[in-house]
Specification:
This protein is mostly helical. It has 5 helices and no strands. The protein has helices at about 15-55, 65-100, 105-130, 140-170, 185-189.
Length: about 190
């Protein structure tokens, strides 16, 4: 007589495509969030280099900023990017995957949602300085504007990361049909 344990996990046999899909999603989670700060650092470096080329006589330009800007972008951006991807992206993707709604549009919308997080945090930080009376209430407009600008700056990089996530983890590679062998060729060979 077989006894069934009600506390044991049910025995499920995952198909190869499900295991491969889970592995691809995990790989996408490790790779995609890195691209937002990386591209941000590259854009920061490019803007600095172009500024130095077009305004070589600017006395306020510090050549050290050509290296510190991208370095700080990576140091600050990588942990924030992975934290936002883990806190916002992971539950969203798992929820959409459960409902079989995981597609490019939904992934890009999650990317925009992830882009709102730094802007909202910057706005909340600014509002807390007003609430604690560190900043005067007349600065509320500039605080809200800085949060909106942060959203606008981060959105293209978040969409790039979301696209890379979709490319690695969600997109189904096209299967090429097997070549049909001509009977005439097989007889000759």
């Amino acid at each position: 007589m077989q006894e069934s344990n009600p506390y044991s996990a049910p025995q499920t046999d995952l198909s190869l495509s499900e295991r491969f899909g889970a592995r691809r999603l995990l790989t996408a989670y490790f790779v995609a969030p890195f691209f937002a700060p990386l591209t941000g650092a590259l854009v920061t470096a490019a803007v600095g280099w172009f500024y130095q080329i077009y305004f070589p006589d600017d006395p306020n330009f510090d050549p050290l900023s050509l290296f510190l800007g991208p370095f700080c972008t990576m140091i600050i951006g990588v942990p924030i990017s992975y934290a936002v991807a883990g806190v916002v992206g992971t539950p969203s993707v798992l929820w959409l995957r459960q409902r079989n709604q995981l597609n490019l549009t939904s992934i890009l919308l999650i990317g925009v949602l992830c882009a709102t997080v730094p802007g909202c945090l910057l706005t909340l930080l600014g509002m807390s300085t007003v609430a604690l009376r560190i900043s005067p209430p007349s600065e509320i407009g500039s605080i809200l504007l800085s949060g909106f600008v942060a959203f606008l700056v981060v959105t293209p990089f978040a969409l790039l990361s979301a696209s890379i996530f979709w490319w690695i983890g969600v997109r189904q590679p096209k299967r090429r049909p097997a070549k049909a062998v001509d009977q005439d060729e097989s007889i000759i060979a």
